[in-house]
Amino acid sequence: MGPAGEADESLTRRFATTQGELAYAQLANAIAPYLAALLDRITDGNYLNQPFTDELVKHFHRAIIGELLPDIAGKWRREPVQIGHHVPADWFQVPLLMRDYADNVRARLAGADTLGLQLELLAYAEGEFLHIHPFADFNGRAVRALLSELLVRLDFPPVEVATERETPRFGEYTTALAHYDNGRIEPLIEFWEQRLDEGA
């Protein structure tokens, strides 16, 4: 699996969807309008009155892939996974880990009154989500939606969260995530500083 939350083998896998069997590229194209529509709703502030909970996390995942992959949409994974050298927690721990994750994000959001704390929140929200790897597939798209929601709640301008594969930036990103998996959040905070600088 790729360290950015999407499975490398998915690039050659085929998926049984509501539109028939699709290759990864076909499925990605079919999902794109649903992700774009969700990001538009997020930018419009449609979720600002909802608390940041594990149910909101599930809702975003369901909004992205629910029309095509209803069997796994918005449902925590029920199998072991490995992302690069990182082996996330056992699947049966995911519900509790994601409840704790949402509680931590909500608490950090309430206290994020300086730029330093805001950057730490964004790095934690991204790194911990991908560290847990809660869904069977399309974690990368789900975390993109979650981070976009947090940017809105922090009153930041829109920032491009996705990092294109096969670029030097993607290598920096995956390295920062690997450091997070090993207990060092600082490289991911620095990556967020660069993201915000580029967005500005």
Structure description:
- This protein is mainly alpha-helical.
- The chain has a single domain (8-199), classed as Fido-like domain (Fic-like fold).
- Helices cover 56% and strands 4% of the residues.
- It has seven helices and two strands.
- It has a two-stranded antiparallel ribbon.
- A hairpin with a 2-residue loop joins strand 1 (14-17) and strand 2.
- The longest helix has 20 residues, at 24-43.
- The protein is globular, with a radius of gyration of 16 Å.
- The termini are far apart.
- The mean pLDDT is 93.
Number of distinct helices:
7
Number of domain units: 1
Query: Structural class per helix/strand content?
Result: mainly alpha
Radius of gyration: 16 Å
- CATH class bucket: Mainly Alpha
**What portion of residues is helical?**
55-70%
Strand content: under 5%
Major β-sheet strand ordering: 1-2
**CATH homologous superfamily heading:** Fido-like domain
User: Low-confidence parts lasting 5 or more residues at pLDDT below 50?
Assistant: none
Principal-axes geometry comes out as globular
What is the H-and-E element order? EEHHHHHHH
Biggest β-sheet strands, sense, barrel: 2 strands, antiparallel
Secondary structure tally: strands: 2
What is the name of the CATH topology?
Fic-like fold
- Mean pLDDT across residues: 93
The end-to-end distance, rounded to whole angstroms, is 32 Å
CATH architecture assignment name: Orthogonal Bundle
